[in-house]
Amino acid sequence: MSKPKRERALAETEAQAITRNIRVSPRKLNL
Fold it and tell me: Domain span at residue 16?
């Protein structure tokens, strides 16, 4: 039962990291 929670947390952290990379990548390209 603890596995699904961990998987969900990892998925959320991964989604946040991807969104951050997408937001930062355009700035780096502009620079």
Answer: 1-31
Q: What is the pLDDT of residues 1-31, one digit of tens each?
A: 567 778 888 889 998 988 888 888 777 777 6
Number of compact structural domains in the chain: 1
User: Measuring CA to CA, how many Å separate 1 from each of 6, 12, 16, 25?
Assistant: 9, 18, 24, 37
Q: How far is CA 22 from CA 3, 19, 29, in A?
A: 28, 5, 11
pTM: 0.49
